Amino acid sequence: MIGVLESKGESSWGRDQDDIVMVPVTTAQKRLFGMHRPNMVSSITVKVKSEDLMSVAQEEVTLLLRQRHKITSFQDDDFTVRNMAQAMEAAQQSTKVMSLLLGSIASVSLLVGGIGIMNVMLVSVTERTREIGIRMAVGATSKDIMLQFLVESGMLSMTGGFAGVLFGTLLSRILSGAFDWQTVVLPGSIALAFGFSALVGIVFGLYPAYKASLLNPIEALRYE
User: Fold this and answer.
1) Mean pLDDT, 10 residues at a time, over the chain (224 residues)?
2) How far apart are alpha carbons 81 and 120 in whole angstroms?
3) By the 8 A CB rule, do 165 and 193 touch?
4) Residue 7 lies in a domain
5) How far is CA 87 from the centre of its chain?
6) Domain for residue 13, yes or no?
7) Are 64 and 30 in contact (CB under 8 A)?
8) Does any domain span residue 125?
9) How far is residue 139 from each of residues 30, 78, 100, 106, 125, measured CA to CA in Å?
10) Are 162 and 169 in contact (CB under 8 A)?
11) CB atoms inside a 10 Å sphere around CB 115
12) In this structure, are residues 124 and 207 in contact, taking their beta carbons and an 8 Å threshold?
């Protein structure tokens, strides 16, 4: 039978499944692998009818190969039978571990960035103490002062988020063009990044804003 196989794309290990040619086993042994490997097969792929029969098929294949290789009950197998379901499960576990690792790194980065924003806002409150006193003297309430610094903190963190999204998008385009990788930047991911940026700014800017709202207008006006 001669024909073209249906396109399958890349496997879970990054191997191109379309870059393959199938020939009869005898032709491969005699013409492709050479006479130094007569009557030898390096691997066999078995397809089962359903996923429920995977374990049963694996046991039957193992038993048949032990019989063909004349392996006694006291000897170990001289072959390996791999279950693709187990391989997929292992790949999924690796993906989960990698996701947790990246999530931990991102959490630490957000924490460090939030602490930096809080320090900047605390310095800003100290340097603008007289300004705060003037605003309070002309009628601004503590809530107004607190809202002002929360907005500034959120804008500061969202500016950093915008820079990060822009850098990540450009880097993905560069890697995609250089290594022929398929990278996708979803609008939902961008919105999530901005949302986290705003949240970090509000959470870590809450204390400086609260501290600014507690200033005494008279003492703030006397501050030099």
Assistant:
1) 75 71 77 64 78 80 84 81 76 85 85 86 83 82 85 85 85 79 78 83 85 76 64
2) 60
3) yes
4) no
5) 20
6) no
7) no
8) yes
9) 95, 87, 50, 42, 19
10) no
11) 11
12) no
| 3-state class percentages of the chain: helix first, strand second, coil last, to nearest 5 | 65, 0, 30
Range of the domain at 179: 107-222
pLDDT in tens, 78-121: 778 877 777 777 778 888 888 889 888 888 888 888 888 888 88
- How many C-beta atoms surround the C-beta of residue 182 within 10 A? 7
Residue 124 lies in a domain: yes
The pair of three-digit structure tokens given for residue 222, joined into one six-digit string: 């006397």
Q: Give the pair of three-digit tokens for residue 29.
A: 């042994």
Distance between CA 145 and CA 13 in Å, rounded? Answer: 56
Total length of the chain: 224
In angstroms, the CA 55 to CA 63 distance is: 12
Distance, in Å, from the CA atom of 159 to the CA atom of 166, rounded to the nearest integer, reads 11
Q: How many domains does the chain have?
A: 1
pTM: 0.57
CA–CA separation, 123 vs 152, rounded Å? 13
Q: Which residue has the tokens 């022929």?
A: 180
Structure tokens at 87: 């391989």
